Structure formats: structure tokens, C-alpha cells
Amino acid sequence: MSATIREQIIAAYVTRLESWTTANGYNHNCGAKVQRAVQHVEFKDLPVCVLFPQSEAVEQRYNQNLCEMTIKIEAIATLGTGNASEIQEELLGDIIRIMTDQTVSVTALIEDIVYTNGGGAELINPEEQTVGAVAEFKIKYFTIIGDPYSQ
Question: What is the pTM of this model?
């Protein structure tokens, strides 16, 4: 069976996150390793970003469901000789920019994406000198009532 509209959107954002590189104008190369909903990443995999699909709210409108899904993005990088707070702000800025860039369509399936929450995360592992940032987004899209595979 084909993927639901929700899964197609999630997959499109995973692909978008894979373009998160310094060669594409970002501060970090978190797109080198994009993962979905993993709770633990290995130091050898850094820098990394993890996409967590979250719950969604649904409202019925004109024989369609207007779905509002939350996606959380976590980015983790090595501290190196940098300042943790500055790196967190760079990571957060990169996340917001890559997720909300309207100049390149991620997918025609969504109606809107809005940054709703985020900030620097605690040092993930002080012994290994890792630092991170997290951001949440609301993504709105439609499906046909009773058919999550169609719009």
C-alpha cells in the first residue's frame, strides 16, 4: 500500500534535512546523518539531526480533515573549541532556516509550516563535549475524511 499523506510529508522533510550542509550555506553539516525518532546517537555519528514526528490535531472542514502535525527536530554537534551557547544558536538558526525556507518547495502536500518552539539544549554529554538545539514546528495539511492516503 502507498504511504499516507502524513508519511509522505515526514519523508519529504527527512530529505530536506539531508541538504543541511556547510556547502549549502548552513553553519553545520547535520544533514550528513539524518535519523528518525532515535533516542540515542553515537558520538561517531556527529553532527546529526533527528526528526521526531509528534501527535497531531484534526479539524473537519468541508469534507476534509485539516491536520496540524507537530514535528520536533533535534540537532547535536561536537563542541570542539567553540562556545556552547554560540553553537546552540547556530544549530537553532540552521534548523529554523532549513525547515521553513519557502524558496524551495519541500512538498505540495502541505498548507503551512510554522516554527512554534525551540532553543539550545543542555550539553548532551560533557565528557564527549557535545552540544545541541531543538525546535518544534506545526505543519498543516489536508486529507479526505476517512482516507489518510488522499487529499
Answer: 0.89
